[in-house]
Write a structure and sequence with these properties.
The chain is mainly β and 173 residues long. It has one helix at 4-12, and strands at 19-27, 37-39, 50-58, 61-69, 76-82, 120-124, 131-137, 148-152, 165-170. It has one domain (15-170): Immunoglobulin-like (Sandwich). The structure holds copper (II) ion. Copper (II) ion (CU) is lined by residues 80, 82, 96, 150, 152. GO terms for molecular function: metal ion binding.
Length: 173
């Protein structure tokens, strides 16, 4: 058969938006091979719990969707994009990624440390420990600038993320 029409049709199809997916299970930090997803607190992020992250970039915007299974039921986990990859200790993932970097670090100025300048979402688990959450920001990440999504231990009474980092997933945003 003459193949050209099929090829022409393929070329006419719109390009899919650049997307990347990470699927992993939370593991200990001291495994023989470095884990894609690590837990620093297995009572809050059990080893073996599942995580899936899908990142879409299109038209100068980025959408990140995160799904988890096997976490603590009925709990809120704030999640942020951090600059560095996961390591053996929670601090290894570095500070929050900021679209406009705060010249003063650690960043506490609300002009920079906010959910328009940082990618943040909150995973609220159901009674089975499942949750999915999504966040869209009006920018794309600088290449190599954000290497992980970090789960924090919970929220304080005002809904702010607790500083303690309980899990980390390596992902190139
Ligand atoms: Cu954080």
């Amino acid at each position: 058969m003459y193949a050209a029409p099929a090829l022409a049709l393929a070329l006419l199809q719109p390009l899919l938006p650049p997307a990347s997916t990470v699927e992993a299970t939370f593991d200990r930090t001291d495994g023989i091979a470095p884990a894609t997803a690590v837990s620093f607190a297995p009572d809050v992020v059990p080893y073996g719990a599942g995580v899936r992250i899908v990142a879409h970039r299109a038209d100068g915007r980025t959408t990140v969707t995160m799904t988890v299974d096997g976490l603590v039921p009925g709990h809120a986990y704030p999640v942020h994009a951090h600059t560095r990859g996961c390591g053996t200790v929670p601090a290894d993932s570095g500070p929050h990624y900021q679209d406009r970097p705060d010249p003063v670090q650690p960043s506490t100025d609300p002009a920079y440390a906010n959910d328009r300048n940082e990618l943040r979402l909150v995973l609220r688990t159901d009674e089975t420990g499942h949750a999915t959450a999504s966040s869209t920001v009006e920018w794309e990440f600088r290449e190599g600038g954000a290497r992980s999504l970090v789960l924090h231990a919970g929220q304080d009474g005002q809904g702010h993320a607790l500083a303690q980092r309980v899990g980390c997933v390596n992902v190139n945003l």
